[in-house]
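Question (not urgent): is this output format expected?
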Amino acid sequence: MKKIMNALHFIFRNGETWTVNRETIGDLWIKQVTTSFGRIDGGEFEEIHPCESLRIEIYKEADHVNSDDINKGGLEAGMFARIKQFKDIEKMDILYRDTKNGEKRMNVEKDTIYFPYEALDTDGHDNAHQTSKVMNETLYIVIDPEKTVEEIYPETGSSHS
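Got this back:
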């Protein structure tokens, strides 16, 4: 059985979600994923996968909401506008399909990746480590404690969005 990444399912601090299919993803780098075991917010003990940083390029075809996603802000303005307005991506599920004996099965397994998160203010919703930019109808997102979207993708210019 071979696992193949099928989609990324972003999860925001307020519970909204966004699924991005692999065909709409350009550049992608998830740096230094580790495995930990712990309890988050009083929940059950579980295996978790924090990462050091994320960088991703998402094409305009992904600027919509899937009916399976619970999203209110993205319905009206589109997901790119939602990402630019709110810096609150907390984690994502990597959704896999697998092939077994030549048969393809969709989204049979997932890994949840937690991003570096530091609250910008007292409400704790916006992440100081998340920057984003839309250029030529492509969304660029960087979640990194040391670098911004302009440093990783210099072609996006110098003003923060």
